[in-house]
Amino acid sequence: MSSPPALELRGLSKTYGDNKLTALSDVTLSIRPGEIFALLGPNGAGKTTLIGSVCGLVKKTSGKVLVFGHDLDEDPVRPRYQIGLVPQEVNFDPFFTVAESLYIQQGYYGQPRDEARVKEVLAALNLSHKADAITRALSGGMKRRLLIAKALVHKPKLVFLDEPTAGVDVELRRDLWNYVRRLAAEGTTIVLTTHYLEEAEELADRVGVINEGKLLLVEDKRTLLRRLGEKNLIVTFTAPVSTPPEAARQAGATLSADGLTLTYPEREGGLPGNDVLRLLYTQGFPVGNVETRSSRLEDILIEILRGKPAASAAAALNALPPATP
Ligand SMILES: Nc1ncnc2c1ncn2[C@@H]1O[C@H](COP(=O)(O)OP(=O)(O)OP(=O)(O)O)[C@@H](O)[C@H]1O
């Protein structure tokens, strides 16, 4: 029998307060053990609410949450021992030392004091030299490192990182990325929310896009980049032209209003970009600069949020792995 998903959401919904604000609407999602899953969406999309519902910080309105196959309605406590959460905001007692706050965390998760583990986590997050510092005296970036250390010290198998690198420096981001990769390689499942698309592009195996509480798309990152991504051939002319070559126009080439830039989206099976260039040269167009630009996750996300590839979003959702019985 195959192992259950690390996390499974079935029709998860959350409505806040009397004004019936729907923060999550019928979210169904299955995350494999060892996967790095990036949840992307604009402010207020429902990402933190989703994480909170799994971690016990938000009371869901309806739906099911299963952690490694265990239904949290049946046992809300034990399955959560497998979870680690790096929240957006600092949440530790400012009067303990760095090491003490990690030992407290181990105790909180029902684990014996494990000095070797504390040392290991501190070293991985470049905090060893601050082990005996009072947490109040840490810099902002060090507080974030400690937040991450706290979430990991009990060796969780499912880790939520809620915008872990918001407002941190390049060095911490790099350290964290390395550590996330190592954890995933060791079998830890990572769910990451981020506004830095570069972060999702760099780390994620799969990407989910959420907006207004609805999961619009779940897709393998590479497929997403390949299927929705396109290479644009950008040709700048040295003098304005009035119209692109007919064959290029029919294949999708467009001209900027000033007649100085031609953009041609190269797609699999379509007219190759080099053929478009050949047409331009042979027909005497005043070609100046030529470059190709690949679309990045950022471009694709903007398209999805604008609702452009709605059909593919629906297809991707239908292609989700079936719920385990
Ligand atoms: N405790 C609460 N009471 C009422 N409304 C809430 C509460 N928490 C969140 N909301 C609302 O629920 C919606 C989703 O919020 P959530 O924090 O989950 O979004 P998010 O995707 O994490 O946003 P961000 O990227 O800004 O952190 C928002 O409209 C938010 O205002």
From TrEMBL:
PROSITE patterns: ABC_TRANSPORTER_1, ABC_TRANSPORTER_2
UniProt-listed SUPFAM superfamilies: P-loop containing nucleoside triphosphate hydrolases
Source organism, top-level taxon: Bacteria
Keywords annotated in UniProt: ATP-binding, Nucleotide-binding, Transport
GO molecular function: ATP binding; ATP hydrolysis activity
ABC transporter domain location: 7-237
Annotated protein name in UniProt: ABC transporter, ATP-binding protein
Species of the source: Cystobacter fuscus (strain ATCC 25194 / DSM 2262 / NBRC 100088 / M29)
